[in-house]
Amino acid sequence: MLSPSTTQLLRFHFSFFLLPVYLFALSQVPAINTTHAVLIFFILHLLVYPSSNGYNSYMDRDETPIGGVAAPLQPTKQLFYISIIMDAAAIALSLFVSYWFTFCIAAYIAASRAYSYRGIRLKKYPVIGYLTVIIYQGAVTYFMVYHGSSINKTLAVPPAGMLAASLLIGGFYPLTQVYQHEADKKDGVTTISALLGYRGTFIFTAIIYTLAMSILAWWFFTNGEQKKFLALATMMLPILVYFFRWAGLVWKDVRTANFTYTMRMNLLASICTNLAFLTLLIWRVFE
């Protein structure tokens, strides 16, 4: 029986925020192995991501709001053991997909542990921590989903897709840290957002997001899929509206760089990007 704190800190609902990369990659696979695509969804969103959340919470023992949880409970040893069991299950199930997929899952788990583990603690280094997150949650995840969901288990995964995935994660990740500067400082952690400052975080985010959309535009236009890009950009428009409105508030008063605004940003961005990439996936049915 899982304790309330374990259930809360696994943060299964947070997997929704990471779903866009899965949908993006899957929408670009020429021929999908449906069974493996479903299995990969289960491995990532119901095992790997929650386990990573739980292990991070076990190491951090947060007393202030964290992603998706306003009042985190204190972790117990059970959370640590559950995260280990979930990781083992993820690796075991990955063997049914491919050895390359299994290797990537193991590498993702190792990177996640190195990010949080007190003995290594990559998260306390702003640039290394940032790059670890965007590479594994972006490019590596895109590679895993594309490769694992393809019928022929191709290794010829489009570099543009991997880069765009990392930049999309990289464009929003600093915003998830913007309200935690003081809590992170007390824990000896300097995030990329803390390094950039409140205003710098918004400027940096705008630049990275622009790069991501530019690469997507180049990719879709090069492949003669202008309509798909226009549909994608249109569905992501509400994100920009909220972002610039929030940035304007932060410029006037940095206290608005808080948990409430951050979670609204996360939720809106996740809904819009999930709908956008899900639309591209459904679009394929009518081609």
Query: Which CATH top level class fits?
Result: Mainly Alpha
Residue windows where pLDDT falls under 50 for at least 5 positions:
none
Tell me the β content: under 5%
* Tally of individual helices: 11
Number of strands: 0
CATH architecture: Orthogonal Bundle
CATH topology: Farnesyl Diphosphate Synthase
Largest sheet: none
Distance between the termini: 47 Å
Order of helices and strands: HHHHHHHHHHH
Please give the oligomerization state of what you see.
single chain
Q: What structural category characterises the helix and strand content? A: mainly alpha
Q: What general outline do the C-alpha atoms trace?
A: globular
Q: For the residues shown, what is the average pLDDT? A: 93
Give me the Rg, rounded.
19 Å
Describe this structure in words.
With 287 residues, the protein is mainly alpha-helical. The chain has a single domain (4-286), classed as Farnesyl Diphosphate Synthase, CATH 1.10.600. Helices cover 75% and strands 0% of the residues. The protein has eleven helices and no strands. The mean pLDDT is 93. It is found in: Membrane.
